[in-house]
Amino acid sequence: MGERMHGRGGRERMFEQGGLKLVVLHLLHEKPRHGYEIIKAIEELAGGEYSPSPGVIYPTLTLLEELGQATVAHEAAGKKQYAITPAGSELLDAERVALARTLERLSSAGSVADARRAPELQRSMQNFKTALHLRLSREGLAPAVLRRIAEAIDRAAVDIERS
Question: What's the confidence (pLDDT) of residue 119?
């Protein structure tokens, strides 16, 4: 049931097996919620870096209801508000280490998003992209020049990793 995080570098699993179910139960433990509210709460936990799709959240809510871990607390105009059940609370308590690990992963995604939005980083990344685009758009790039550009990028990557 793991939705994926969409980042500039590819796709990565956001949730371990069962992690999404625990986060949904955690959110329902805080207060009863509609599916849309759960999506927004998870997005907020991840600092906007990740947002589960309705196609993941609603089946998870249905599963939790079938397992007796969540129940429809209120329904109006076709919108269901879910609440955690005692069985859901017991599971949440038994899986608190896994929940903490999953919440930390979401928080970490939010920290990355915050850092990525830092103005000085935005400026330097834009400068890099512009310089690379301008250099690559020149005619007659010899293999040796391309190699030097690749080596410069590799050195920068190593410097960043060591920072």
Answer: 81
